[in-house]
Amino acid sequence: MRRKTLLYGVLCVLCVPFVFPTWWMVTSSLKPVSDIFAFPPSLLPGRPQLEAYRQVFELQPFAQQYWNSLYIAAVVTVGTLAVSSLAGWAFARIRFRGSNALFLVILVGLLIPSEVTIVPLFRLFHSAGLTDTHWPLILIPILGAPSVLATFIMRQFFLALPKELDEAAAVDGLGRLATFWRIGLPLARPAVGAVAIFTFLHSWNLYLEPIVFLSTPERFTLPQALTQFVDAYGGPMWNVQLAAASLTALPVLVVFVVAQKQFVEGLAHTGLKG
Amino acid sequence: MPDRTTWWTASRRDHLVGYAFVAPQLLGSLLFVFLPLGLVLYYSLHEWNVLADTFEFVGGENYRQLLADPNVPKVLGATALFSVGLVVFNLSLAMLLAVLLNQRLRGTVVFRTLFFSPVVVSLVAWTIVWGFLLQSNGGVNALLQTVGVEGPNWLRTGTGAMVSVIGVQVFKNVGLNMVLFLAALQGVPKELYEAARMDGAGAWTRFARITLPMISPTVLLTSIITVAGSLQVFAQIAVLTQGGPGTSTTVLVYYLYQQAFQFHHFGYGATLSVLLFVIVLALTVLQWRMRRRWVFLEA
Question: Looking at chain B, which residue has its C-alpha nearest residue A85?
Fold first, then answer.
C-alpha cells in the first residue's frame, strides 16, 4: 500500500514538466498582459479575456497560415503513404532483380537528414524558381529522406503477412496492383495509421525548411508564424504568442487524447519495436 | 506472337511491377537525397554569391577556413555537450518512466497519455511556452521560489541555456522512447523474474541482469535514433537562444544555418554540411559496430 502511494506520488511529480507547460500556455493566453508575470503565479486566469486571440488574427494572416500548415501536412501525409506503401510492398512481397541492393541504397537516406542537404536543396529549388512556394515543403518530405523511414516501417509490416495471401489472390485472379490495393493495404491499417500520424506531425513541426524557403507572411506555416508576434523592439508579445501557440497545439492535442491508443500502440507495435 | 509470350513471362512481369512500385521512392531518393549529397561536396569547393549570382571554384579554401575558424571548436564542443546531455537524460528518463508505468498500477494509461502528450504538441509552440516559463521572472523560477530556491536567469547564462535547450527537447520527445521501452519491457518473460527472485536477486540485480539484457535491442535502436536526432536539433535553439549567450548553444546545424542563410556564405555552409554528414555517419557506424559488445539478443 505504501509502495503504491509512493509510486503515484513519484508519477505525479514527474508529470509536472510534461503537463504544466501546456496548462500554463492556455491559461496565460487568457490573462491580460499585466498579469502574465504576476507573483505569486495564479493557476487560473482571474479575469479571462480573449484580447490576445483577437490580436493573433490582426497582426498576422493567421487563418491563412493555419490553412497552409494544414493542407501541406495533409498532402505530405497522403503522398508519403502512397510512395512508402508501394515501395514497402514491393520490397517485402515482390521478387525482382536487385531488390535487396535497391533497398539498402534507399536506407542510406536515413543517414542523410535534410539538414545536411539544405544548402544544395535551396539552390536546386532556387534555380527552378520554386523558392517562396510550398513545393519544397511538399516534395522534400514525400520523396526525400523523411519518407525512407515510412517505407522501412511499411516493409517490416508487409513482411509479417503470411505468404499464402499472394497465392490466394493469384487464384482469385487478382493482379499485383489489385493484390496490393485490395488485400495488402487494408491489412496494413495499423502501419498506415502510425506512418500517417508521424508524417503529419513531422510536417506540422517543420521549421528549418519553411524559414529557409519562405519569405512572404501569407505563405508562412504555423511554426514560422508563431515567432512573428513581436513588438516594435523585437521583444516577444507573450500573451499573443501563447494564444497563437495554443491555437496551434490544442486541436492536435484533442485528437491525440481521443485517439491516444492508436497513437501510442500504433507506434510501439510497428516495426520500430527492437 | 509466340516470341512475345516467351519473353513476357510471369517473373519478368514481376520484375517490372517491382521496379514500378519502388520507382517513386527510388527517383525521389536520387533527386532529393543523393543528388544534393553529391552537390554538397561539390559546393564545398565553390563560393556562391546569390545576390551577384556568381558561382566560382575556390578549391580547398572553405576547408582551410573550417580549420582556421575559431568558432568551429566551440561549435563542436556545444554540439557534443548537447548530444551527450540529451541522449543520457532522454534515455534514462525514458527508462525510468517505462519502468514506473510497467508496475501494473491502476491509471497507468492516464500517466502514459500525459507523458506522451508533448510529442504531439507543435515543436515551436512547445518551445515558445518554455521560453516564456524560463524567463528570469517566469513560471519555472516562480515554482522554484515557492520551495525556497533562487533560480538562475536560465536563458542568459551559458550553462543555464544549455540545460534549458536539453530539457525542453527531452520533455518534448521522451514519450516516444518511453513507449518503445514499455513495449519491450512487456515482452520480457515473467518466468525469468520469478526464477531470479527465488535465487534471491534484489530489484536492482533483476533490472541489471535480466531487464537490461533482454531489452538491449530496443535500447540500441532508440539510442541510434536519439543520437541522430540530437545532431539535427534546430528549431528549439533558433527560438529559445539563437545559439547564445555567445556561442554556448550554437550547435552545428544552427551554425550551418547562420553561415549559409543569414550571412550568405553558401560555400562555407556546404562545408559545414559535409562535416555534419561525416559526424552522423561516423556515430551511426560506431554504434552499429558496438552492438555485438552489448546487445544480448539480435532481434
Answer: B21
Whether residue B145 is found in the same domain as residue B244: yes
- Report how many domains make up chain B: 2
CB contacts of B133 in chain A (<8 Å) are 20-21, 24
Does some domain include residue B7? Answer: yes
Nearest chain B CA: its distance from A20 CA (Å): 9
Flag whether B197 is in a domain: yes
Contact between residue B47 and residue B59 where contact means Cβ atoms under 8 Å apart: no
Closest CA to A256 of B24, B83, B179, B31: B179
Which residue of chain A has the CA closest to B143?
A: A41
- For residues B21 and A82, the answer to whether their CB atoms sit within 8 Å is no
> Which B residues, 222 through 251, put their C-beta within 8 Å of a C-beta on chain A?
222, 228, 231-232, 234-235, 238-239
Rounded CA separation B28/A182 (Å) = 26
A123-162 pLDDT per residue, tens? 999 999 999 999 999 999 999 888 998 999 899 889 888 8
What domain range includes position B100? Answer: 70-294
Average per-residue pLDDT for chain A: 87
Cβ-contact A111, B226 below 8 angstroms: no
What domains lie within chain A, and their CATH numbers?
63-268 (1.10.3720.10)
* Three-state secondary structure of A66-122: HHHHHHHHHHHHHHHHHHHHHHHHHHHHCCCCCHHHHHHHHHHHHHCCCCCCHHHHH
Is there a domain that residue B51 lies in? no
B interface test, pick of A227, A264, A273 with most B CB neighbours within 10 Å = A264
CATH of the domain at B220: 1.10.3720.10
Q: Place A103 in a pLDDT band, splitting at 50, 70 and 90.
A: very high
Query: Do B174 and B253 sit in the same domain of this protein?
Result: yes
Residues on chain A touching B21 (C-beta within 8 angstroms): 86-87, 89-90, 94, 180
The closest of B161, B164, B179, B170 to B87, measured between CA atoms, is: B170
Q: pLDDT confidence of A167, banded at 50, 70, 90?
A: confident
Give B291's pLDDT tier (boundaries 50, 70, 90): confident
The residues that bridge with B55 in the sheet, in sequence order, are B48
Q: Is the pLDDT of residue B93 over 50?
A: yes
| Residue appearing with cell numbers 493567421 | A62
Residue A88 near residue A154 (C-beta atoms within 8 A): yes
